[in-house]
Design brief:
Helices cover about 45% and strands about 15% of the residues. It is α/β, with parallel strands linked by helices and about 260 residues long. The protein has a 7-stranded parallel sheet, sandwiched between helices. α1 crosses α9, α3 runs parallel beside α4 and α4 packs parallel to α6. The protein is globular, with a radius of gyration of 17 Å. Bound molecules: nicotinamide-adenine-dinucleotide (NAD).
């Protein structure tokens, strides 16, 4: 129960990696705010967590809309008193080759995957800072864990918008860690490789891509969402109270493949 007594807000928690992170946080004792653009999957995930004996609040929240994030923060504080952990997980893929990508495709990927992380970090981060000012002696006043991709570290094909946004998340992680270290707010990042979710369905099932991508993974298999969640729990827990500004690649060694 490494997160006992903590409250975690997970964005994009209705499906895939976010749902696995929400479940892992609940198993470790956290009360979880299950925030997602889509109401029904958020509701389903929260219900499952409650049935398993946890406490969860489903919220419809678009990370590109500051008023919805502010409303979600208020609802979370009303339900659970405070937030200790923010997991910036919501993301979208809007693929196109560079030469055909439209400005709208570029903008959508950046709005969700990068600017959405900034909005949530700033709005929930202000809540952490207010707690830090009220209780300056506390060892940790908040944890932010960002979910990014190794596409942000080494590029990718057919998603320059996504790679640029995910590289930007690394910059947000290190900058927020440097600015907020003095408030004992830790900011870290998990960089995934290829995870079996809705987002990667085409890559994993289309014979033109499937083998090619799997061969780049040293461990020889795609990740399950549950392969990623423990890294997020580590950063969110007291085990990582002295860790900030770091990137942990959870990608089966795809980052070291030649
Ligand atoms: N699947 C992979 O291989 C992989 C690899 C690297 C990084 N990631 C990252 O992991 C995160 C989760 O992706 P996933 O694979 O679980 O995808 P997914 O599509 O299964 O789930 C993403 C969730 O985010 C929600 N979402 C989308 N836009 C949103 C918005 N504007 N506001 C709030 N919620 C929104 C969706 O409704 C969905 O429930 C993303 O940031 C993604 O970029 C995934």
């Amino acid at each position: 129960m490494r997160l006992a007594g903590k409250v975690a807000l997970v964005t994009g928690a209705g499906r895939g990696i976010g749902a696995a992170i929400a479940a892992a946080c609940a198993r470790e004792g956290a009360r979880v705010v299950v925030a997602d653009l889509d109401a029904a999957p958020a509701q389903d995930v929260a219900e499952a967590l409650c049935k398993a004996g946890g406490a969860a609040l489903p919220l419809t929240m678009d990370v590109t809309d500051r008023s919805q994030i502010e409303a979600a923060l208020d609802a979370a504080v009303a339900a659970f008193g405070h937030i200790d952990i923010l997991v910036n997980n919501a993301g979208v893929s809007v693929p196109a080759m560079i030469e055909t990508m439209t400005p709208a495709q570029w903008d959508t990927a950046l709005a969700v995957n990068l600017t959405g992380v900034f909005h949530c970090t700033q709005i929930v981060g202000r809540h952490f800072l207010a707690r830090a000012r009220a209780m300056p002696a506390v060892r940790c006043n908040g944890k932010i864990v960002n979910v990014t991709s190794i596409a942000g570290l080494r590029g990718t094909i057919g998603q320059i918008n996504y790679a640029a946004a995910k590289a930007g998340v690394l910059g947000i992680t290190m900058s927020a860690a440097r600015e907020w270290g003095r408030y004992a707010v830790n900011v870290n990042c998990v960089a995934c490789g290829l995870v079996e979710t809705r987002m990667t369905e085409t890559i994993r099932t289309d014979p033109r891509f499937a083998d090619q991508y799997r061969k780049q993974i040293v461990l020889g298999r795609y990740a399950a969402p549950d392969d990623v969640a423990p890294a997020v729990v580590f950063f969110a827990s007291a085990d990582a109270d002295y860790v900030t500004g770091q990137i942990l690649n959870v990608c089966g060694g795809a980052d070291i493949h030649v």
